[in-house]
Write a structure and sequence with these properties.
alpha+beta; four-stranded antiparallel beta sheet
Length: 199
């Protein structure tokens, strides 16, 4: 690898090929900030072929929606589910070992299946924060960090709808305009202004 001039990078692959790339000026993304640190809130070891089979069972329904596969970890089990249109499907598998608090996350099915493809052993799934990324790792390949998808789980608290204040003001105004004037006890004159004549 070498720099050519001010804006070109050259990559030599042995003696068979060379690639020259134009460099783009700018600040690279802060990718190190995406790597979770500290202890995970949940860590689970899963047999990769079982995990892959469960995701493949639900992916057709996931494609009907937004490609999201929902993962719910609780009581040593992993529930893999998907929703699309008016359909929902799920599959539950046992984990090899899970520690930490019960949690759930939604991930694009393409990323999960891409990572699990060809794996035969045990993979480790970790989650460090409630809204942070998921981390997949095993002994044969580098860690894969995947950002979660936002989905509605169905048990979110319903939003409280507040009544507009203008309705209360309108009601007060209606009451004021519909009040009858108090009677003075005197006889009213006719429209002509003449006193009523008694027969």
């Amino acid at each position: 690898m070498s720099i050519i001039g001010d804006n070109k990078l050259r990559l030599d692959f042995g003696t068979s090929a060379s690639v020259i790339v134009n460099l783009i000026s700018g600040k690279p993304p802060e990718w190190l900030a995406l790597i979770p640190k500290g202890d995970p809130m949940l860590q689970s070891r899963i047999f990769a072929p079982q995990f892959e089979a469960a995701v493949k069972r639900v992916r057709i329904i996931a494609k009907e929606g937004i490609d999201a596969v929902r993962l719910e970890f609780a009581d040593g089990k992993l529930k893999v589910s998907a929703r699309g249109g008016d359909q929902e499907i799920s599959s539950t598998i046992d984990t090899v070992h899970t520690q930490g608090e019960a949690t759930r996350i939604a991930i694009n099915q393409k990323y999960i299946l891409g990572y699990l493809s060809g794996k035969q052993g045990i993979i480790t799934f970790s989650k460090y924060t409630e809204s942070g990324p998921a981390v997949f790792e095993d002994q044969q390949s580098p860690r894969m960090i995947v950002m979660p998808m936002v989905v509605a789980w169905g048990d979110e608290p319903a939003a409280v709808k507040e009544e507009p204040q203008t309705k209360a003001a309108d009601a007060t105004l209606d009451n004021e305009t519909t009040e009858e004037p108090e009677s003075s006890g005197e006889e009213e004159t006719s429209e002509t202004g003449e006193e009523p004549v008694a027969d």
